Amino acid sequence: MNRARRVDINQPNIVKRAKEDGWSVTHTYTLGAGFPDLFVSKCFKVARKKVWAYFLVEIKQPGEKLTEPEIKWHALNKGCVEIIHSPAEFSRIAKRRVAQCLPANTPSS
Fold it and tell me: Which of 2, 87, 90, 98 could bond 32 through an S-S bridge, CB–CB 3.0 to 4.6 Å?
């Protein structure tokens, strides 16, 4: 039986930053089995159309490694999860994720 995970010590600060940056946050750390800690999403209007940016977040302390179940989950779900260590790193990665969703030459703010 897979046990649900604990909340990482830096998770509240990362969640706070995500919400300050306008992201919706769903906690998923209780799912266990290597599933990431958060699902984040944000909607933008681009040329009168809604564009959604979303991704999964695996929260780790600096220097902390993935667990065996996390390694297996990440191997099966490449590209949909980001490993994040700090609020500043969340903002940087989220900005990159948004840019990937928008057409070229579109401002991402």
Answer: 2
Q: What is the pLDDT of residues 70-82, one digit of tens each?
A: 999 999 988 789 9
CA triple 56-82-19, angle to 5 deg: 60
CATH number of residue 84's parent domain:
3.40.1350.10
Domain containing residue 37: 11-101
Tokens of 67: 């667990």
The closest alpha carbon to 95, from 37, 29, 21, 38, belongs to 21
The per-residue pLDDT for range 9-42, each reduced to its tens digit, is 899 999 999 999 999 999 999 998 999 999 999 9
Predicted model pTM: 0.85
